[in-house]
């Protein structure tokens, strides 16, 4: 019998519609319910492989799109890809140079390799979310937006509070297309405010 974790209606739909993964529908739901991406935005997608969010982003904006992952991403027309660790200053500088201007959106649908130990996996996912937030804070323009996948658990409130320090509007959203039984949720943060030197 085929497991619901490997085959379901969204996996089948993704195959029919040419998306590289079912995760495409999560971003489509987010954009439909909480519009974040505008048609001229420059977007950086972290943990982008295999590229389904990049495929959706290409339909939502005419701006520059950059995907970053530790693994190579099969080429997509109109998308720049970077193989590297987004937590390193070298990759952050490379992304800024490739963007060639202000970065409006940072998205992150990445998750750590799961061990099956709930508390351990949740802590690692929160840590990855913190790294994605640090990246966003380092590259976003004022007024920019941030979307990040994470997992509900005892460490979640701390990450949520950290995001609220940098954005005027912060909400959570669980797409219908998330797998049944998954504890994943998405933080949707709008209107980034960079700290000013010498600000009170």
UniProtKB/TrEMBL annotation:
Gene3D superfamilies: Vaccinia Virus protein VP39 (3.40.50.150)
Record: residues binding S-adenosyl-L-methionine: 51, 53, 69, 85, 109
Principal cellular location given in the protein's record: cytoplasm
SUPFAM superfamilies: S-adenosyl-L-methionine-dependent methyltransferases
Gene Ontology cellular-component annotations: cytoplasm
InterPro entries tied to this protein: RNA_methyltr_RlmE, RNA_MeTrfase_FtsJ_dom, rRNA-MeTfrase_E, SAM-dependent_MTases_sf
Residues spanning the signal sequence: none
Name of one Pfam family that matches: FtsJ
Keywords, ordered alphabetically: Cytoplasm, Methyltransferase, rRNA processing, S-adenosyl-L-methionine, Transferase
Sample GO molecular function, one term: rRNA (uridine-2'-O-)-methyltransferase activity
Reactions listed under catalytic activity: uridine(2552) in 23S rRNA + S-adenosyl-L-methionine = 2'-O-methyluridine(2552) in 23S rRNA + S-adenosyl-L-homocysteine + H(+)
Domain of life, per lineage: Archaea
EC number: 2.1.1.166
Residues covered by the Ribosomal RNA methyltransferase FtsJ domain: 19-192
Active site positions, chain numbering: 149
Entry's localization field: Cytoplasm
Biological function: Specifically methylates the uridine in position 2552 of 23S rRNA at the 2'-O position of the ribose in the fully assembled 50S ribosomal subunit.
PANTHER family in the record: PRE-RRNA 2'-O-RIBOSE RNA METHYLTRANSFERASE FTSJ3, RIBOSOMAL RNA METHYLTRANSFERASE
Family the entry assigns: Belongs to the class I-like SAM-binding methyltransferase superfamily. RNA methyltransferase RlmE family.
Name the record gives this protein: Ribosomal RNA large subunit methyltransferase E
Annotated gene: rlmE
